[in-house]
Amino acid sequence: MTMFIGPDETGVLLEVGAVEWHGVAERELADAVHAAREKRLSWRAVGEAIGTSSEAARQRYSRSS
């Protein structure tokens, strides 16, 4: 599957494969979760925001010490 995202600065339509697009979305979600945790949001609030349990969110997105 191929997705097209708006034109670049030269006006050329950018083509992105679905796997590549999924990777981008996953990285953006992880960045958002880490930003929320830096602002002291609880794992419960994070889990609710992304549609999972607090424990699942913590296991997936907590940074290793």
UniProtKB/TrEMBL annotation:
Origin superkingdom: Bacteria
This one is known as: AsnC family protein
Organism in which the protein naturally occurs: Acidipropionibacterium acidipropionici (strain ATCC 4875 / DSM 20272 / JCM 6432 / NBRC 12425 / NCIMB 8070 / 4) (Propionibacterium acidipropionici)
